[in-house]
Structure formats: structure tokens, C-alpha cells
Design goal:
Length: 284
Amino acid sequence: MNLDEAYQRCEQITTEQARNFSYGIKLLPKPKRAALSAVYAFARRIDDIGDGADDTETKLAGLALAEQACADPAAFPEDPVLVAIADTQARTGIPMRAFEELIEGCRADVLGTNYPDFEGLRHYCRCVAGSIGRLSLAVFGADRTPANDRLADSLGIALQLTNILRDIREDRINGRIYLPAEDLERFGCTLDIDPDGTLLDEQDALLALVEFEAARAQEWYAEGMRLLGRLDRRSRACCAAMAGIYQRLLTNISLRPWQVLDRRVSLPGAEKAGVAARALAGAF
């Protein structure tokens, strides 16, 4: 597989499927854009295994194969994504262990893991989203210090909490509850649904729960966004655009929490583009 073709395939996957992240990735210079596209393409493949329609055994087998690929991506010379990942790892030193943590989080999804408290959910968010932050740091060329890794994890936790709130009803229809059991008990919620997928909890209790979790996510953004000052200009713009889109989404949820009770909330493309433009201009 030709290396240029491999990266082109990863960028194609990113353009077609990274509906939020692509706005930030496009702000990077070409070498970093290609490398982060490779990271996204492999991460997306892992996510798709966990979220696919196959049975549990098939999904777990697929994740095990992805784990094997992490150990030696260069052993798959006909796979464009892994060809690009092998080159990216050689050029930037991306921590392949972070992909293994992503696989750990996806495996928890497949097994239907629930979280009794926030500490358990925090670990899950670190695996599935903080891992991408740590991979991105290597692509950006930022110092891989424990402090920077912690900030990347904090930003990843904020982004994943936003995803969880946005998809609260959709996830429940698919049999998944991510919010901690202790929080559900605190607000008197069960997230039970009727055959039509309507949440059955009393609406005021659900809204209070969403508002509480949104405020928690904002605290993680406040911590994670400190990472921006440690990045070069273009990397900072990329990170600010990606995080800014999700933070804008969270703000919309905070202002109108009832939206997430009956549909999946998203931002229009023009608003995402505006966030990216502000990020490139250094407005964050």
C-alpha cells in the first residue's frame, strides 16, 4: 500500500465521518493533519466495532484483532489505516497504549458496563476520549509531560460527558446507561423507557439531572481548556475548534436541557464553522 494513498484514505474517512472533529483537524498544517486523520480513522474503526450490529462475541473478537494491530501496525501492509498509523507512530511517537485504552472502553460498552459512581464513569471517559487527547498531543508535538497528559484527559472527559448527555435517550434505547447510579438515585431517576423509547421519569427530575451533569462537564472544560496555552498556534486552533464545538453544544444543552429528552442534539454546520474560525483567529 502506497503511503500517500494510505493517508489519503484516512483523510477521506475523517472528512466523511468526523462531523465535529474535522473542523479542527482541517486547521492543522498538512503533516499534522494527515497524522491526526490517521489517528481518527483507526479510532473510528475501533468505535465502529463496539457500536456495530454484530453479536457480542463477534464484537469482542474484532476488538481483540484491533488490539493485536496496536502491537505492530506495520505488520498489516495492505491495510491503509494501519499503514498510516505505523508511519505516524514512527514520525510522532504516538502512544499506542492509548489505543489499547480506547479498546478497553469499547469493550466495556460491548459488555454493557454500568457505573455506580462518577469515578467509574471518569475512568471510562478517560479511556474512550482522554486517550484521543493524549494521541493528539504527540501529533501536535507538545511535551508529553504528566501535567499535559492530565489536561488532555480532562478535556477528553468533558467531551465525553457532553456526548453522554447529548445521546442520553438514544443510548438508553440501545440498552446503555452511562450516568452514574448514585446520580440517578440522587435525582430519583431510573431512565426507564416505554416501547416507543420515551423516558418515563418525571420531567422535572430528568431536567435537574441533566443540569447537574452539564455543570459537572463545564468544570472539566474549565480544567481541560488550560491545555490550549501549551500548544503551538495551529495545534491550539485545532484543539480549540474541536473542544469549542462540543462546549458550545453543552452550553445549548444547559440552556435548553429538555431537548435531550426526546432527540439527539447537534449544532448546525454554520455554527461549527464559526467556532473553527474563532479558534483560528485565536479568540479562545
